[in-house]
């Protein structure tokens, strides 16, 4: 099961968070989302745990809790809906007075 975590303190690293979720069971993967330009944490991330019961227990026990001074939210991650587009990502282009302008 994939878990979404938000409200993470910016200084929390992946090793530390892996250890915290490891208290509930095996952690298959973990990723803290970072700003592309600065490399700084954006305060949220994803954990994948292969055993659903362990993941549900982690969600139950950690959601709304205090983590290093921040109140975190922990929930089952929701899959992005398939919009049927050609893929890619990172925004598209739109016309504006015959100039190309990046939109996100």
TrEMBL record:
It comes from the Bacteria. Residues 84-93 have a biased composition (Gly residues). PROSITE patterns: RRM (PS50102). Gene3D superfamilies: 3.30.70.330. Residues 73-104 are annotated as: Disordered. PANTHER family: HETEROGENEOUS NUCLEAR RIBONUCLEOPROTEIN 87F-RELATED. This is RNA recognition motif-containing protein. It comes from Pedobacter cryoconitis.
């Amino acid at each position: 099961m994939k878990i979404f975590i938000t409200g993470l303190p910016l200084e929390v690293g992946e090793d530390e968070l892996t250890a915290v979720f490891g208290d509930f069971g095996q952690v298959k993967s973990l990723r803290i989302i970072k700003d592309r330009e600065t490399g700084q944490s954006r305060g949220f991330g994803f954990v994948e745990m292969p055993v659903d019961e362990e993941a549900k227990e982690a969600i139950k026990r950690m959601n709304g809790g205090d983590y290093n001074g921040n109140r975190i939210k922990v929930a089952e991650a929701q899959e992005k809906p398939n919009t049927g587009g050609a893929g890619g990502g990172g925004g598209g282009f739109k016309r504006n007075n015959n100039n190309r302008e990046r939109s996100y």
